[in-house]
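Researcher: Next entry in the queue.
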Amino acid sequence: MGKNTARAEATRKSAEMRAAAARKERQQKQLITAAVAVVVVIIAVVIGLAISSQPDKPAASANPGADAAIAKLGSIPASAFDAAGKPTADNAIPQKLDDGKVLKDGDKPEVVYVGAEYCPYCATERWSLVAALDRFGTVSGLTPTRSAEQDGNIPTVSFKDVTYKSDYLSFRAIETQDRNGQPLEPIPSDIEPLFTKYNAPPYTQSKGAIPWTFYGTHQTVGSGVPIQSFVSLSDDTAWTKIVEQMLTGKGDLGQPIMANANAVTAQICTLTGNKPSDVCSSQAVVETAPLLKP
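Model: Structure for this entry, 294 residues:
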């Protein structure tokens, strides 16, 4: 083999070795890149699982003052009911239904409410219902809202997500429309015939009025709380003002709400067999009971 041939062969082998080394280096880089990608994916999955396993944080309230006020509704003292006394508004006294029958949820009598968030009379009536219902159990899931702006803009609570626990009573609430008049909840099929039958002439002046509170043997159509004093409550302190007066049973807001709540309480006592006794034998309830038609 000549010198030129040997030199060419050496050059070729050297080139092959360099190419092989370059291929090996590329393969190592690809392996490292792939490994890094796998590690990144694993870390992302672990972080995602850790985040998803944490409980969801509740959204910040748009009106924490209203929420704080509403939380106090379950601790209204008996003295506030007695201070308010018996109601004087005509519509506070439930109407007797001659052929009405008490609804049952298992072995508990059931009270049914049908209303809508836009409705101003529903807005005032809910305050009394919550106050009365909390004497027999625990109302939860209340959220602050207002009636429609063109309907008084009255501060109130919504029953849309409400739950009720009681040893004596069952409560079912249906909010048919939201504050803007959009559909929320349909009236259940077992309630619709009762709503159609009793919430119409000759029992009422108009058909399908709200709020409608149904006790089986009695009903209240409309509110037993006048709305005039509520219309001026336009700022975010409105819920605090209302609840503070409810806690005393006095004032142009608290007295009519709590007096109406005494009528609701007296009516519920006829369903529960006057239980609990400390509630049904309280001064204001005893004074209000004779106003009910047996």
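Model: The two ends are 129 Å apart (CA to CA).
Researcher: Noted, moving on.
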